[in-house]
Amino acid sequence: MADMIPAARPIIGDDERAAVDRVLRSGMIAGGPEVAAFEEEFSAIVAGRHSVAVNSGTSALHMAFVAAGIGAGDEVIVPSFTFAATANSVALAGATPVFADIEADYFCLDPAAVEAAITPRTRAIMPVHLYGHPAAMHRFAEIAAKHDLMIFEDAAQAHAAALDGTPVGAFGTAASFSFYPTKNMTSGEGGMVTTGDADIARRVKLLRNQGMERRYENEVIGFNTRMTDIHAAIGRVQLAKLAGWTKQRQDNAAFLDANISGVITPPVAPGATHVYHQYTIRIVGHDRDAFAEALAAEGVGSGVYYPIPNHRLPSLISFSPRPGDGRQCGTEGCCAAGSCEIMPVTEQVARECLSLPVHPSLSQDDLERIAAAVTKVASAGA
Ligand SMILES: *Cc1c(COP(=O)(O)O)cnc(C)c1O
Q: What is the CATH T-level fold of the domain 14-237, as seen in this structure?
């Protein structure tokens, strides 16, 4: 059998190695000139907003909330169909994540579900640009204006995605990006807060460094969530390659769109620029996990992001919604029975979703094998 085509593959080359070597030889390893340069260069892909680098995407989300004054007693509306870091960051800031359902086509927060989840304690909406597809930001801007809410974008998977020409990371009060190795670009580990608010940018800079701007004159209680110059140097090299890799992901997705049949391929909303962190299909008429196993037997790797909605995770179930009768969603057979009243789309998509390889290192032969394998498995026994 031919080699397995992996679901994701970080690309690290000689340029990244040389950048790390340059920093190690300089002797300046903690945050310094590379971090400052990375921040300045990153601002170019978020329409010139302020960028502040931190040590992970999770820290970026967390610091943004603390910097904006979100905390105990505040509610932030989040999707349940995302990585747990989304809701974790709300809870880490001391606030309450309130889960809302998604729309099936684009896998992102459903504006109508968000509006229904608003209470007098709601302070913010946190859309996730899941898989690299921008969330419905124009609708969220209207809802936020109407109810006097802030918007925090979880752009961890969506570097350089856009909606009607505005890049993600330039819509909300603040946004957060991740540079984890499997994301569209990496710094090893790392994250970036972007904001149009100079005050929030300054507070994130304080928070990441024990509350210090001037040495040993700590102004607020802070964290150590700094990015090192080693990581920033890798991130700068990758940022310069991002546009080319994004184009490759989009070309790969276009090939898969045109050559796969028997499953639901991912549509793109009008005006949206999708950057295909994942190429996620929906499997109907087959058991999704059996489908993934059959693909693996054909040499095609795949991934399920995410099999368990956040509101049913042991860590987050205490935040799970309660329908009118007081039962907690996700317990007593509510969602497990596949008949969830509050999160019907989230539950359905969690059963159906399957992400295929779309990364820039796929060859034409790989793409043909992926499309042929998916079409073959979809037509078998259907
Ligand atoms: C990766 C990811 C994060 C967290 O980023 P880390 O850098 O791993 O901390 C947050 N939200 C989403 C949607 C992610 O995919």
A: Aspartate Aminotransferase; domain 2 (3.40.640)
